[in-house]
């Protein structure tokens, strides 16, 4: 992180690592709703676990793991990088230059949610 504080690092093409600290919600939006979003994400995971979907469907299990892992990663940033409860900033560093800067936890959450939507659509089509 010290290297990124001084300069951006080009990876390939337009992709680069650039340090950004995000105190708001996803993509810098909804800062006041961050605690509610965190509770909602944990609630979704709990519902999937209680229903048993995460235990019987491998795609749902992977998606749940991605969402939970990403949420816990961002939650850890908020807890340990601030002076008060949940007032820390998430460290974002992947910059595509045409999309808001994000981190691997954000990518995991996005991929997990997309998998959940696809799995739900597939189950609805089969019913």
Structure description:
The chain has helices at 2-6, 34-51, 53-56, 58-80, 104-126; strands spanning 9-12, 15-22, 90-95. The protein has one domain (2-126). The chain has a three-stranded antiparallel beta sheet with strand order 1-2-3. The chain is α+β, with helices and mostly antiparallel strands and 127 residues long. The mean pLDDT is 83. It is 57% helix and 14% strand. Helix 2 packs antiparallel against helix 4. The protein is built from five helices and three strands. A hairpin with a 2-residue loop joins strand 1 (9-12) and strand 2. It is globular and about 55 Å long.
Helices and strands, with pairings:
Elements: H1 2-6, E1 9-12, E2 15-22, H2 34-51, H3 53-56, H4 58-80, E3 90-95, H5 104-126
Helix pairs in contact: 2-4, 4-5
Number of helices: 5
Helix content: 55-70%
Mean pLDDT: 83
Q: What overall form do the CA principal axes indicate?
A: globular
* H and E order: HEEHHHEH
Q: Could you tell me the number of beta strands? A: 3
Radius of gyration (CA) equals 16 Å
User: Distance between the terminal alpha carbons, to the nearest Å?
Assistant: 49 Å
Number of separate structural domains: 1
Low-confidence stretches: none
Class based on secondary structure composition and strand pairing: alpha+beta
Query: What amount of the residues lies in strands?
Result: 5-15%
Side-by-side strand order of the widest sheet: 1-2-3
Biggest β-sheet strands, sense, barrel: 3 strands, antiparallel
């Amino acid at each position: 992180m010290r290297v990124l504080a001084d300069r951006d690092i080009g990876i390939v093409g337009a992709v680069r690592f650039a340090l950004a600290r995000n105190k708001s919600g996803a993509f810098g939006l909804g800062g006041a709703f961050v605690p509610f979003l965190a509770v909602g994400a944990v609630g979704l995971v709990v519902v999937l676990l209680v229903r048993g979907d995460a235990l019987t469907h491998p795609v749902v299990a992977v998606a749940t793991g991605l969402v939970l892992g990403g949420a816990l990663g961002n939650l850890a940033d908020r807890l340990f990088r601030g002076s008060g409860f949940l007032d820390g900033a998430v460290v974002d560093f992947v910059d595509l230059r045409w999309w808001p800067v994000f981190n691997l936890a954000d990518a995991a959450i996005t991929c997990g949610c997309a998998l959940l939507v696809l799995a739900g659509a597939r189950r609805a089509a089969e019913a």
